[in-house]
Input
Amino acid sequence: MEQWEVFHGTWRLKSGRVLGYPHYRFTIIGSESSDGNYLVTQNQPVHIVVRGAEWGIKLEMRIPSMVEFQTEPVRRIDSFNAALGCLVSNLDSSRLIGGTLYFGVQVTCFSEDPEIAVPPPELQFDFTIKGQG
Output
């Protein structure tokens, strides 16, 4: 999957920062039931759950003078969020050109894999004092 960010399993996706111009979307392929194009707007973030053994996502943009969307270069940062108890992958198409930061679209992906999820910190330990006797 050239120029696609590849994921495995079930992930919850949420679109983030985006400016009104140009137009942004993300496209998903290879999933069980979420394949398609998702237009990202400033006022309506996209929230979806994507499932599949292996699926891909790419971020795209189109300025009004363009007929088709073009794939944006993506910076992917994977981390483990202890507070949420899951892997988090941030996809961002913002870029620095000639000292100027051009904001793109951002999609945050939260792993729903129960094998790598941990309970929230308040549920990790049981400090109940057991009675004697």
The helical segments are 121-124. The mean pLDDT is 83. The longest helix spans residues 121-124.
